[in-house]
Amino acid sequence: MRFSARLTLSSLTLCVLAACSGNAVDAPQPVAIEQDPPGAEIARTIVVTGGTQCALNVRKDRDDPEVFTAAACELKTGAGDAVTAVTLSFAPPCRRYTFNNLIGERYFLDEKALGQRNPACPIESFNAGYGWVLQRG
Fold it and tell me: Which residues, if any, are the signal sequence (predicted)?
């Protein structure tokens, strides 16, 4: 009985010392993943405006679209010049994001490549389950 009480007290002491020291590491902030409200009309578009210029447009209902302009853009093509993936690079704190063509004409954010999300970047709140349409022009 005394052994377990000492072990618990020792563990508690170590925990308090670690929390009070300057070496404590803050836990990463959670990122709120977007969820569309029921009945809302949301249009998500990857707009390719030039060879290496792209933007992400999110239009909610009839509002003006929210535009996220990438610093660089890369299209990966497959058979018959069909676009199989789009990779967009953004300035820090954002990074590179790949959207893969998975279903018909829909592109989805590659959540596996995304890893841990950064709350300082609005793109990292995008729901990987929502499809995007590619618009070239």
Answer: 1-18
